[in-house]
Amino acid sequence: MQAWRVHTLGEPREAMRLEEVPEPVPGEGEVRIRVLAANLNFPDALLVRGQYQIRPPLPFTPGVEVCGLTDDGRRVIANPSLPHGGFAEHVVAPERALLPAPESLDDAEAAALHIGYQTGWFGLHRRARLRAGETLLVHAAAGGVGSAAVQLGKAAGATVIGVVGGKAKARTAEELGCDLVVDRTTEDVVSRVKEFTGGRGADVVYDPVGGDSYTASAKCVAFEGRIVVVGFAGGTVPTPALNHALVKNYSILGLHWGLYAAKEPAAIAACHGELTRLAAEGAIKPLISETIALPAVADAVQRLADGATTGRLVLVLPRERGSAR
Question: Which site in 84, 122, 165, 195 is 20 to 30 Å from 269, CA atoms measured?
Answer without folding.
Answer: 84
